[in-house]
Write a structure and sequence with these properties.
The protein is α/β, with parallel strands linked by helices. Helices cover 39% and strands 14% of the residues. The structure holds guanosine-5'-diphosphate-beta-L-fucopyranose. Guanosine-5'-diphosphate-beta-L-fucopyranose binds next to helix 3, helix 6 and strand 7.
Length: 338
């Protein structure tokens, strides 16, 4: 999809590192989620064997289970797309689960990958690892330079630990473990739980239900003033494969579009895509979270990769997927209620 040699403006000097994916046994941890399903779709274009394991067989928070599975199945590449994830409400409501599960998943997979000689590992984090007051656009070197956004600090700390695990295993053991920080994602297989979802899924669902019920208005959480950057999940999957092939350094790499939109404008766009004609109101009793988090994507651009899906196109695809899943009665709705 994207050329292997950096062609973009600001491209790095010299050839890109090359890791040959052909013939590799690629374990996608978290293959049922939005990111994992996109990775499995993307990896089908490469000559690799994709390995997955259902949660009922291996609980990734259990070290012994992960250890046994990796020893038995011998992946040569690991992508850590498994995580306990959720929107602003879920993060603030289930701090222990977001911290514990994500720490354990990262530690168990990184350690097992090292013990069993995995040749390449990609850890996927999140743009919420950066300080709340980070200078915009956010460069990777701002990690750990200031306090975190309180609504998602638990998740952020676990994801920062994942980045540090990759760096530590690189330094101590020479492991080729890398990490990437995606911006806010949306797309097929997102979680459409009314409270625990992220904003794209929440607004798609709310506008859709309001359209059907001919409701006069839809509530948007917060003031509508924060800005976010949204990336279609298939673009993330493509960028992840690009990094596996062409990146091998300790520093994380931001993955995004570099473009931001206010939540109010985003809500209006979703309303348009869904075809809902009612009013949008703002529920200021709900938190705004980070005021801004636009990623600086120049490191990724210099590696020769750019996002391909315009926001409107991605939202149209996500909405079409939502309608199909709703009709089929298979809409994912994962609440975090223990
Ligand atoms: O998507 P969201 O929950 O993630 O919220 P964060 C983004 C913005 O949309 C916030 C507003 O300003 C919300 O107040 N918003 C408006 C809504 N309406 C809604 C709604 O109905 N539901 C939701 N959820 N938000 C997450 C982190 O933060 O970002 C995670 O909590 C993760 O840890 C993810 O890292 C990328 O961008 O605020």
């Amino acid at each position: 999809m994207t050329p292997p040699v950096a062609a973009a403006a600001g491209a790095r000097k010299g050839p890109l590192p090359m890791f040959d994916l052909a013939g590799q046994r690629v374990f996608v941890a978290g293959h049922r989620g939005m990111v994992g399903t996109a990775l499995v779709r993307r990896l089908a274009q490469d000559p690799v064997t994709v390995l997955t394991v259902p949660r009922r067989e291996v609980d990734l928070t259990c070290q012994a289970a992960v250890e046994r599975w990796v020893a038995d199945h011998r992946p040569t590449v690991v992508i850590i797309a498994a995580a306990k994830v959720g929107g602003i409400h879920a993060n603030a409501t289930w701090p222990a689960a977001f911290l514990y599960d994500n720490l354990m998943i990262a530690a168990n997979l990184v350690h097992a990958a090292h013990r069993h000689g995995v040749a390449k590992l990609l850890f996927l984090g999140s743009s919420c690892i950066y300080p709340r007051a980070a200078a915009q656009p956010i460069t990777e070197d701002q990690l750990l330079t200031g306090p975190l956004e309180p609504t998602n600090q638990w998740y952020a700390v676990a994801k920062i630990a994942g980045v540090k695990l990759c760096q530590a295993y690189r330094r101590q053991h020479g492991a080729d473990f890398i990490s990437a920080m995606p911006t806010n994602l949306y797309g097929p297989h997102d979680n459409y739980h009314p409270l625990d979802s992220h904003v794209p899924a929440a607004l798609i669902r709310r506008c859709h239900e309001a359209k059907r019920a001919r409701a006069p208005e839809v509530a948007v959480w917060g003031t509508g003033r924060p800005t976010r950057e949204f990336l279609y999940v298939d673009d993330l999957a493509d960028a992840s494969v690009h990094l596996l092939k062409h990146y091998s350094d300790p520093e994380p790499v931001n993955i995004g579009t570099g473009e931001e939109i206010s939540i109010a404008d985003f809500a209006a766009l979703v309303r348009d895509v869904v075809g809902y004609s009612g009013r949008l109101t703002f529920d200021t009793g709900r938190p705004d979270g980070m005021p801004r988090k636009r990623l600086d994507v120049s490191r990724l651009t210099a590696l020769g990769w750019r996002a391909a899906t315009p926001l409107r196109t991605g939202l149209e695809r996500a909405y079409a997927w939502f309608c199909d899943a709703e009709r089929a009665g298979t809409l994912p709705e994962r609440g975090h209620d223990p």
